[in-house]
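Re: that backbone. C-alpha cells:
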C-alpha cells in the first residue's frame, strides 16, 4: 500500500537533503588526512668543535758528549797514543777521532792522544808509547781502552794500576801490524775494531762536562790563527772562513790524513794551561819526561768561529771530567765536531793573529820558549 506523499512532506525531504550534504562533507573532511600545517624545521644537531690536530714534536736526537754531533747510542771509548813528529805524517785514522790531545814529552817534542768513540777506524797510527801524563788525563773517561806501543820500564807498574784497559801489544799483539812502506818506529798501526774487542768492558762515552752549541757565545776577540811552540815542536791552527774550521798545522807543516787530501781540521781548539813539572821518569837517552797536571783548575783559551775566549777550567778529582766556564760562570760552548785540546805549560805563551800578533797568556807577564820550530 502506497503511502501518499503530500507537498509538505516533499518539501521537508528536500530541506533535509540540503542540510545533510554540507554536514557529510564536513564529516568527510574531518575524517580524512590532516592538512599539513606550517613546515616544522628539524631539530638542529649539536655543534661539535673539531678536535685540534696534535702535531708530534720530535724528541731531540741524542748527541755525543765528546763532539756534540748526533750519535745513535753511547759507544766504548778507545784512546790511542800517536807519534807527532814529521815522520808520522800522514796520520791514519786521526780524522775520525772525537777529540785529540797534544802533550809534551821528552826534549820538547810532543805526542798525540786520540780519543775515539763515534767512529773507530780499522787503521790508526803510527802508535807510540805511553807517558805519565796519560794516567790522570785518561781517568776522566772511566775505563777506556788504551792502545800504546809500550812504556819506560819504571812506568809500567803505574800504568798497570791505572783504571784504563791496557790493550798494548804487551797484552796481545794480534791487533797491531807493521807497515813495510814506512820506517820504524813510525810503521806501527792498530786495528781499532780488533783492539776494542779485547776491551769488552771499556767505558762508553759519557758526560765529560763539555757544552756544545752551533752558534758561538757573545764576546770573544778575533783569532784567525793561534801558534804555540816547544823546544823542538810547534802547533798552529788557522781559521778557514769557508769551512768554519781551524786547519791544523803540526811542526811547520799542514797536518795530513792518510785517507784523504783535506788535511786535519778542528771545530774547536782548546789551549788548556797546566802546571807542568819534571817527573821521576826518563827515556833511554836520559831525557826527562814532564808531567802535566790535568787535575785542579786553571786558565784556558778557546778558539771557535774565528774568535778566542779566555775561560777557566776545573777538574776537582781524577774521576771527574773537565769543565770550561766563561767569566760569568756559564759553560763555554764548543763548536760541534772534532775538538783539539793542547796541554800547554802555563809558563808558555800562545801567539794569536787577528790580524796583528799579540801574546795570549794566563799570566800578566807571560814568559816562555821563543825557539822557532815546527808550526
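Recovered sequence:
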Amino acid at each position: 500500500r502506497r503511502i501518499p506523499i503530500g507537498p509538505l512532506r516533499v518539501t521537508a525531504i528536500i530541506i533535509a537533503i540540503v542540510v545533510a550534504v554540507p554536514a557529510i562533507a564536513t564529516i568527510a573532511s574531518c575524517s580524512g588526512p590532516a592538512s599539513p600545517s606550517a613546515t616544522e624545521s628539524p631539530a638542529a644537531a649539536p655543534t661539535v668543535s673539531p678536535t685540534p690536530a696534535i702535531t708530534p714534536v720530535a724528541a731531540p736526537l741524542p748527541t755525543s758528549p765528546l763532539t756534540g754531533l748526533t750519535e745513535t747510542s753511547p759507544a766504548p771509548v778507545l784512546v790511542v797514543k800517536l807519534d807527532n813528529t814529521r815522520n808520522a805524517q800522514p796520520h791514519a785514522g786521526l780524522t775520525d777521532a772525537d777529540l785529540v790531545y797534544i802533550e809534551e814529552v821528552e826534549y820538547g817534542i810532543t805526542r798525540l792522544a786520540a780519543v775515539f768513540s763515534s767512529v773507530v777506524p780499522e787503521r790508526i797510527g803510527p802508535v807510540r808509547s805511553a807517558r805519565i801524563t796519560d794516567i790522570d788525563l785518561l781517568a776522566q773517561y772511566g775505563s777506556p781502552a788504551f792502545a800504546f806501543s809500550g812504556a819506560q820500564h819504571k812506568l809500567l807498574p803505574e800504568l798497570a794500576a791505572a783504571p784504563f784497559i791496557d790493550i798494548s801489544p804487551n797484552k796481545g799483539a794480534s791487533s797491531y801490524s807493521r807497515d813495510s812502506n814506512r820506517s820504524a818506529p813510525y810503521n806501527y798501526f792498530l786495528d781499532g775494531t780488533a783492539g776494542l774487542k779485547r776491551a769488552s768492558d771499556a767505558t762508553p762515552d759519557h758526560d765529560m762536562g763539555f757544552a756544545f752549541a752551533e752558534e758561538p757565545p757573545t764576546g770573544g776577540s778575533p783569532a784567525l790563527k793561534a801558534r804555540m811552540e816547544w823546544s823542538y815542536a810547534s802547533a798552529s791552527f788557522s781559521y778557514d772562513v769557508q769551512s768554519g774550521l781551524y786547519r791544523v798545522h803540526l811542526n811547520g807543516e799542514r797536518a795530513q790524513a792518510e785517507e784523504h787530501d783535506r788535511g786535519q781540521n778542528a771545530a774547536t781548539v782548546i789551549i788548556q794551561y797546566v802546571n807542568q813539572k819534571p817527573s821521576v821518569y826518563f827515556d833511554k837517552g836520559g831525557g826527562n819526561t814532564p808531567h802535566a797536571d790535568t787535575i785542579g783548575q786553571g786558565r784556558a783559551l778557546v778558539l771557535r768561529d774565528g774568535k778566542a775566549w779566555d775561560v777557566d777550567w776545573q777538574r776537582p778529582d781524577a774521576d771527574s771530567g773537565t769543565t770550561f766556564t766563561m767569566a760569568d760562570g756559564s759553560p763555554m760552548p764548543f763548536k760541534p765536531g772534532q775538538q783539539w785540546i793542547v796541554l800547554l805549560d802555563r809558563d808558555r805563551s800562545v801567539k794569536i793573529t787577528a790580524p796583528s800578533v799579540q801574546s795570549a797568556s794566563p799570566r800578566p807577564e807571560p814568559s816562555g820558549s821563543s825557539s822557532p820550530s815546527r808550526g
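The longest helix spans residues 7-31. Residues 1-36, 363-375 have pLDDT under 50 and may be disordered.
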